Amino acid sequence: MRIEYFLLVDRIVSLSIEEGVVRCEATVPAESTIYEGHFPGFPVLPGVLLIEAMAQTAGWLVLAMTRCERFPFLSIINEAKLRNFVRPGNVLMVESKLIYEGSGYIKTENRVLFESAVMCEATTTFRVLPFPSPVFQEKLVAHALNIGFPAEFAKNVR
Amino acid sequence: MPSTFETVTNIIAETCDIPRENIKLESHAIDDLGIDSLDFLDIAFAIDKAFGIKLPLEQWTQEVNEGKATTEQYFVLKNLCERIDALKAAKGV
Prior knowledge:
The complex is a heterodimer. By secondary structure, chain A is α+β, with helices and mostly antiparallel strands. Helix content of chain A is about 25%, strand content about 40%. Chain A contains three helices and six strands, in the order E-E-H-H-E-E-E-E-H. Chain A has a six-stranded antiparallel beta sheet with strand order 1-2-4-5-6-3, covered by helices on one side. Chain A starts with 10 loop residues before the first strand and ends in a 12-residue tail after the last helix. Chain B is an all-alpha fold. Chain B has a single domain, classed as Non-ribosomal Peptide Synthetase Peptidyl Carrier Protein, Chain A, CATH 1.10.1200.10. Chain B has helices at about 5-15, 35-50, 55-65, 70-75, 75-90. Chain B is globular and about 35 Å long. The chains are: A alpha+beta, B mainly alpha. The interface of A and B includes residues 75, 102, 105 and 127 of A.
């Protein structure tokens, strides 16, 4: 995780459009100014960042489904459950599964695992829209390829 | 078997917490019931699931934005239900 850049997953471990499943790894930073407030003497990764990590993970799946032509804007978060404290240094597995592809929107179920324990889960809905900026699209795809996004889904943009 | 309108009424009532008696065939989902585009995503999902169809929301939005259609054509419930029935028929549902 590079929290200061809001990059919350480190690498795409697997991505299958056929199965509608993506898995990403994310290592919680050992040090961060966030822990000075959250919480003094008991550092915990804020739950909102775990939700964002799930959204970013699901986003890679949607990006692959659209061949990098469209961007998923997080719109609805349902049934979010923060089950356990996520601590500095934890190596997390973030999983997202497609549950529905509608007209212009996508729903996914997501969860974060640490050593096979579910730390949190949520259902998310994304509006899937054309990229608002070609620079954004190019930079996002470049980052995607750096963290293991399958190149076959980025042919249209590269 | 409930009618299309009854099912849509139930979906709107449950999704948006709107009293059933306020939901009428001539109601405009946006103008009369105050449903915004985000809430309509939840409604569209529930409609798709309930009827086994896919509401073409993107196409409708584009047509409205381009002035080729009015929101009444898609979001007055009578018209919405007719479109659901047409989509069901086209899919053989």
